[in-house]
Amino acid sequence: MTVLDLFAGPGGWSEGLRALGVRDTGIEIDPMACATRAAVGHLTIRADVAAYPTEPLRGKVTGLAGSAPCQPFSVAGNHGGTDDMDLCHQGLDDLARGHDTRSALGTACTDPRSLLVVEPLRYALALRPDWIALEQVPAVAPLFAHTAGILHGIGYSVWTGVLNAADYGVPQTRRRAFLLASLNRSAVPPEPTHAKDPGPDTLFGPALAPWVTMAEALGWGYLRRPAPTVTGGGTRTGGAEPFGNASRKAMRAAMDNPGHWAWKCPAPTVSGTVGHVGGRRPGGGHLSLEPGEGAVLQSFRRGYPFQGNKGQRSLQIGNAVPPLLAAAALRPLVPAALEVAA
What we know:
12 helices; 30% helix; globular
């Protein structure tokens, strides 16, 4: 039996599972992401999730995780997903009725990648894993609610909602929609471990830990707020959220003024280019994050062996689910998971 990770990328879900003592097998088409997974030791099938047959996997999959490409639904993407939302809903309904209309619906989509959001349901209906964990940008929440209704109808306990990565120890205020489902236990959201304003200890227990700041994560020492969302870039291959290119320019200009940089307030989005976000580095010099720094803000361990050139590494980093957030979401679902040191 195995855990299957759809659209596996460089290993965000895989690292979250590894922290719980579980290994997975990822399906991923991007050669550089596959190279990264190989370098870190994550099992991978290099294939197109939408074209891969489910029949050989029947009876072999106990858990299903996945983060379909978010670019069609990203605030700063091409917005094709917004135009294609009704077609995605239709695709979900058709699969629930036993009809695979993906090819026909795909030709009608503004962005053919939009329909990838229905793939996890195709695998879930065919494989009936014990548990399911899905992650996407908040705009996909209506499709997750639709998927949840279908899964509930076949016996799953399901929870859907939006989680803030900063509430789980990730040094970044990344908000993402989640769908968590289980055949054997109640699906519930993970309990936060961190808070913006933790407050004091009470009779009911100690206070939560404070949010991990960008400075703490990167070793700068005096920032006091989380980093912004790390995304897949501001082109057709991805989009920074929640600020588009126009507003980002104004925000950078504002933050370069004295007293307005994110030493004292949340910073704007760090894109998948993991480049300029405005302001100055401690000790002087313009603030331009390197891919390795973006990876730390995504909660990947230092030295994680991302493969490819700078742009390819940055896209992998920005498009991944943060491992700490993945582990938090998985912890209530994965049975008998023995937590190990990350």
